[in-house]
Amino acid sequence: MKSPFKLIYDNNLIQHLAEIDRKYHSLIQETIREQLIYEPEVETLN
User: Fold this and answer.
1) Are 36 and 5 in contact (CB under 8 A)?
2) Which residue, 3, 33, 28, 34, is CA-closest to 13?
3) Is the pTM of this model over 0.70?
4) Burial status of residue 7 (CB atoms within 10 A of its CB: 0-12, 13-18, 19 or more)
């Protein structure tokens, strides 16, 4: 199934994730997923 949205990540994403403890990565993924489900057209700043 094709996603109705295209995710565009900052060029520094990999570096930023490397600085965050791995135990928080699933929380970040879940937060992104929820944002796209409930407020897909709201741009985030962080």
Assistant:
1) yes
2) 28
3) no
4) exposed
Q: Calculate ∠ Cα 43-16-3, nearest 5°.
A: 45
Per-residue pLDDT of the chain (46 residues; tens, 9 = 90+): 677 778 788 899 889 989 999 999 999 999 988 998 899 888 887 6
Q: Which two tokens stand for residue 38?
A: 């409930």
Residue with tokens 């930023």: 16
Six-digit token pair at 31? 């937060």
Give burial (CB, 10 Å; 0-12/13-18/19+) of 36.
middle
